[in-house]
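Input chain follows. Return structure tokens only.
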Amino acid sequence: MIEFQHVSLSLHNREILKDVSFRIEKGESILLAGSSGAGKSTILKLALGLIKPTSGRIWVFGREITRLSEKKLMKLRQYFGTVFQGGALFDSLTVEQNVGFFLRENLNVEETEVQNRVRRTLQFLGLDKFLTYLPSQLSGGMRKRVAIARAIVTNPQALLYDEPTAGLDPIAARRVIDLIKHLRESFQVTSLIVSHEIHYFLDIVDRMLMLKDGKIIYDGEPNLDIVEYFDEADGMVSIQHLAG
């Protein structure tokens, strides 16, 4: 479904990604982990075709996207639901308007259908009582759930989460994690979760990719034989194998 083949990216004479290769199968849930600045969010932008690699090839839904026109890329992006870091909600729009925005502005869905889909989605997420609220009236965890509602209202084939628990307290983060797990179990949707908070996601993903200095240094099952920790002083990622 999503495949990177020897992808490298340089911006402003700085090498961001170096020969990155991985494949995500349909229905898989993947954690892409690494410290801040490691290039995790860049991989999401590449998968969406928002930026193009310096070298290598990227396949999405059976299409090689590195040479596609913007018009064709726009059509492919409709198959993704993206939860941006910080939520990226429109401050001046209500919850209902935020969730229905893409349906109205990009897909030209009939208004009655938009309202029905938005209400069903918000009800599924337990947010149907907050239709008329503005983002500023919601807690951080609720804003994140609204962002997830906006991502799934289009019935995407794949969900991309960019630091979905960033800035949340442990209780709110747990609710978001449970929701991500619930979505996967309910709809078998392919998920790529970008996070530096590894411990939150080990028990809800099929596989883990570790990114360090622009390279994939680990691609395998998350398990108790691997301990990941972040040194907050320099942001480096270390892996220790406990077996043996």
